Amino acid sequence: MKLPDIERLREKFKSVNTFLFDVDGTIVDSLPVYLESFNRAIIECGLSPLSKEELYNFLDRGCSLREILDSVFPKKFPEREKQIELSYNSIKKYFGEIYPLNLRLHPGVRDLFENLRKNGYKIGIITGRVTTEEFEKGIIEKLGLESYVDAIATSLETRKRKPNPEIIVACAKKLNVLPISCAVVGDSSVDIIAGKSAGSIAIGVLTGVGKRREMYENGADLVIESLVELNESLQILIT
Description:
The chain is α/β, with parallel strands linked by helices. It has 2 domains: 6-30 and 104-238, Rossmann fold (3-Layer(aba) Sandwich); 31-102. Helices cover 48% and strands 11% of the residues. It contains 11 helices and 6 strands. α7 links the parallel β2 and β3. The longest helix is centred in the middle third of the chain and has 19 residues, at 80-98. The chain is globular and about 60 Å long.
């Protein structure tokens, strides 16, 4: 595991004018809601619930909901395809019901966004959820972050999911910046891989599904415990 060279990292940050943030597990503490929704649906089909570690491992690898369900349902499960589709729809339904009622920012988000804004950085949102931009704008407004966020890109707008860098390129285009001038912040290995593939600085945060070692092995420029720590480190990195 190669730890970051701070001086080299400071040099890289000289070209950064934009921060792009993943949502679930990065700025919003929504993973427990996802776990609850997922297990509720598969239990209804007669399957045993997944542990947090099992589900988070799928998410860290960038598996889609359908890919996870395909792995969880036994190959000879009765009416397998029908049950997978039912579970898929139930999970989306339960998540849609529970998520807006349990919106909770991870500590430090608002202070970090305020600090970034004061220092002249643009802020973009890059969520792997297959949702509309309007839906995500509503979430950002409920979180009270609308005055900080300059653009939002979702997986609905892209042909390929992370770790493909397409969503980073899409958000950078909306902001009229180059991906190479962005710092991508996310909680999973696929966020790191997508960021590096786009030519961006990739910062891992340990508030979601990813692990420090795997993030560095996948090319992270920096891995931090929380966005509180990123905010505290910001002045060192940008001066």
